[in-house]
C-alpha cells in the first residue's frame, strides 16, 4: 500500500459527450401522412414517477415501480440504489455502494431477480442473491418489485421479485439516442474517475407494416477508484470478565471497480395480433482490491485504557475479481380469435472469476508489544512506536487462492389463455407450464506457504522492510507501513507451488449442484362490476442434486445427495375499484424459496472433535402470505397508499452448533445449518407522492415523495447449550430484518432545471447469530441514513449538465456485538461528487 495520490478535482475536468454518428433523421410514414413534424417527449422526475405509477396502477399484482426518464436514465448510479427508493425495499451496501436488495424485511437470498422475465443466477459461490450493482442503470428502462405473485409467475421469492426490463425501441417514437460522460470524485481517496454511457433506438418498416420492427442498443462503461477505512473486532469480546477485548484489527481498503455493460434488443410486431422479441444483456464487473491490515491480539482480554502483553501482525490481501452476467430471452405472443398463445425461452449465466491472488499474507511481530486500546465502539491502539517500525515484523505465512464459480439457468415457458363470457362478466382462463434447469459449479484451489526459515530464507529476506510500500493513508488514526504485493509474488515465484498445495481446503470447497424444476399452473381472471378476481393453483416439482467432497481427519470422501420434493401453491388476488382514482387490493398467496448454495453445500471437514459442514438435506422455506391495501391516485405523479402484510414462514434456515446432539454428541463444535419450525413477519407500508403543479410559480415545480415500512418478525431457534448440557430455545428477529425502512424525497423542476434531495433510512437489524445461549455475541448492523443530492440543468433542448453528491452526511457502516457500545466492525467511506454531461435526441 502507498499514500493515495491526490488527482485533480472536478474543476477544470474536460468532458466530451459520447459521440454517435447518425447519418440523417427521418420521419415515419405515419408521421408524414398526418403532417406531423416532431414528436415531443416529456422528461423529468415527475414524468418518470407518473409513468411508474400508471404501470403500478394497472398491474394485477401488488408491486412498486421505478421508471427511467425520457433520456433513459434511472435516478441512481446502479440498479440496487434505484430500487431502494421503493416502499418496503432496503439495500445491503458494500464499500458504501448499494448491492443486495431486501424486500419487506426479508434477506436478499429470500428474493429473486429476473431480467426481461428470466431468472438471473448468482455469481457468488454460496448465494442465491444477485448483486444488483453489477447492472449499470443505463441499460435499464424500468424496475419492478413484485410483492404478490400470481400463479403464472415463478414462486421463488418470499419478500418480492425484482424484475428488470431493458430498453426497447417501442419505448420511444422514431429515432432516439443519448450519450453521457461523467466524472466522479471520491473524497476518501481523493480520486477522480470517469464514466461513459449511451443508448440508441429506432423503428423500421418491414413488409407491409409501418414502424413495426424496432432495434435498441445501450452501452455503459465506468472506472471508479475509491476505498474505505475500517476497524473491527469480529465480536471478540469477553463479557464474562467485564467487557474486555481479546483482539482487533485496523483495515484500509483501496479499490478499483470497472463496470461495462451492453444490451441489444429487437422487437417485431408484424400485425395487430402478434409480437416477437429478442432481449440480450451483458454486464461485466471487475474489482481490484488491496487490503492492508494491522492487528493486535492481547495475551489476556483487556479493558479500554489498560496495558498488557500483546502480539502484533501486519497483513495484506490483494485480489482481482470479475463477475459477469449474460442474459438472452427469445419470446413472442399471438392471438387466435379468443385465444392467446405466448412463449419464452431464456438462458442466463453468471460467473465469478478470481485468478491466483494473495488471499492473506501475514507478517508476525518479531517481539511482543506492550499495548492496549481506547474506544469500545471504534477501538484505537495504545502502543509504542515499535508497532509502526517495519523492522519489527517478519513474513510468517501466505495464503494463495484461485476460484471460479459458474451459475447457469435455462428455461422454457408456454402459456395459453382464452377470453370468454361467464354469466355476462368478462373472464379469462389461463394455463401453462415451465421447465427450468439450473446448475452451479464452484472450483477453489488453495496453497499455503509457511515455515520460510526451513526453506532457506534469511531473517533479512523475510523482514517487512523488504516488502514495504510507503505508509498507509488511514482516516481513523496512525497505521504504519503498507505492504507490496509484487514483492511477495516475487518471493513466491522462486518456489515450487505444488509443494504447498492445500488439498483439504481445495477439495471440500468444490461442489456441483443442480436444480431441475418442472412447473404448471391454472388460473382464472374475472371482472365483476368494480371487482377483479384472479384465482389459481401452481405446481412446482424440484429435483435437487449436490456432489462434493468431505474430509475426516485428512481422509477424503466423495459425497452425493439426491432429493425430490413437490409444492402445490394456491393463490387468490382481488382488486376493487372504489372510484375512478381509488382501488383496494387483497391477496392470499403461497411461495417457496430454496436454501442458499452455501447452506446446501455437500462438503464437510471433521478434525478430531470439531466439525464444519453444510446441510444438503435442508427443507425449502415455505411462506403463506396475506396482503391488503388501498391506493389513491392524485393527478400527475400523485399517489397515496397503505398496505398491511403478514407472512407465516415455515422451515426458515439458521446457523447452529449441533455439538452435543445426535451423531455429534462427543464433539466440542459442530457448525452447520438447520431448519426452524416457523417464523412470523408482519408490517405496514405507507407511501405518498405528489407534484404541486396547482401552486403558483415557482412553487408549482415542487415534488414530494415519502414512504416508510414498519415491520416486525418473530422466530424461534433451537440448539444444544454446552454449558448447561441441555437443549435450549430462544426467540430472535429474522436476520436482515429492519423494523423501520423509509425514504424521503424533496424535488423541484421546471423546463430547464431539476433538483432532488433524498434520504434513505434503515433501522438496525440482526446480522449474525452466536450460539444458542450467547445472545451477547449476536452481531447487529446499526441504523443508517444516507442523504444524496442531484441537479440537472438543460443547457439546450438536447444538452444537459448534471451534478450529484452521494452520502453527504458521511454515513458509516457499524456492526455491534450484542450492545451498541461494543464494536463488531466500523467502516467509513466518505461522500462522492459527480459532474456529468448528457446529449439526447428524441
From TrEMBL:
CDD domains found in the cross-reference section: ligand_gated_channel (cd01347)
Annotated keywords: Cell outer membrane, Membrane, Receptor, Signal, TonB box, Transmembrane, Transmembrane beta strand, Transport
Membrane topology: Multi-pass membrane protein
Predominant place of localization: membrane
Domain TonB-dependent receptor-like beta-barrel positions: 367-808
Segments of this protein annotated with the region Disordered: 296-320
Subcellular location: Cell outer membrane
Compositionally skewed regions (Basic and acidic residues) per UniProt: 311-320
Sequence ranges assigned to domain TonB-dependent receptor plug in this UniProt record: 56-161
Keyword Signal included in the entry's annotation: yes
Extent of the signal sequence: 1-19
Keyword Membrane set for record: yes
InterPro entries the record matches: Beta-barrel_TonB, Beta-barrel_TonB_sf, Plug_dom, Plug_dom_sf, TonB-dep_rcpt-like, TonB_rcpt_bac
A single Gene Ontology CC term: cell outer membrane
Family according to the record: Belongs to the TonB-dependent receptor family.
Family annotation (NCBIfam families): TonB-Xanth-Caul
Name of protein: TonB-dependent receptor
Organism: Pseudomonas thivervalensis
Lineage: Bacteria, Pseudomonadati, Pseudomonadota, Gammaproteobacteria, Pseudomonadales
